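User: tokens in, sequence out, please.
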């Protein structure tokens, strides 16, 4: 009486239009796009921490401004519209989706040799669900950033002089009804979260 439903998409692009991170260099700016929550990664750990099989998902939690079930099942944010709008006007040097593996595994894949991403933690807005998971599971901070998106669903790299224009383009799309609906309330904004520095393809959270 149960079934699983899965889907996937296949795309094709001209090789000349691929974004391959080869032009990324120290001094470039790292912009983060907000996630809507956990998205689709780390749920094995979530189920273990919260014991969801034996816990009421309809329980209202003030910290979450909603029920636990609503927080866990918030739909994954899709970034096609803001990214396409940006690509039409600005050179985007690199892109990475923050999925399973969090910051530490995904961001280095979008960096060339000789570059690292330096991210001051004060630039990051972490949704309450992640703070709850960290506290209840007593999960070390590094592990949280190695499993979850921690509120940043996608990162991109642009030239320093293009950062302001990039934020304007992204936030115009992010402020639209596609991103701020009844099911996904709030004001979500792209933000500068760090910079590219010399290094060995690693993430430096400081």
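Assistant: Sequence out:
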């Amino acid at each position: 009486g149960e079934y699983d439903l899965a889907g996937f998409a296949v795309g094709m692009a001209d090789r000349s239009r691929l974004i391959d991170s080869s032009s990324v260099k120290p001094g470039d700016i790292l912009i983060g796009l907000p996630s809507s929550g956990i998205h689709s990664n780390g749920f094995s750990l979530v189920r273990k921490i919260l014991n969801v099989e034996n816990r009421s998902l309809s329980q209202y939690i003030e910290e979450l401004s909603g029920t636990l079930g609503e927080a866990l099942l918030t739909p994954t944010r899709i970034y096609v519209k803001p990214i396409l709008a940006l690509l039409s006007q600005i050179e985007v040097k690199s892109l990475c989706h923050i999925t399973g593996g969090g910051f530490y595994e995904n961001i280095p894949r979008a960096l060339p040799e000789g570059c690292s991403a330096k991210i001051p933690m004060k630039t990051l807005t972490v949704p309450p669900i992640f703070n709850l998971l960290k506290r209840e599971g007593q999960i070390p901070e590094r592990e949280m950033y190695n499993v979850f998106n921690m509120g940043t669903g996608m990162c991109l790299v642009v030239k320093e002089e293009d950062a302001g224009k990039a934020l304007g383009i992204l936030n115009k799309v992010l402020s639209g009804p596609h991103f701020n609906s009844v099911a996904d309330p709030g004001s979500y904004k792209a933000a500068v979260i760090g910079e590219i520095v010399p290094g060995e393809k690693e993430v430096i959270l400081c």
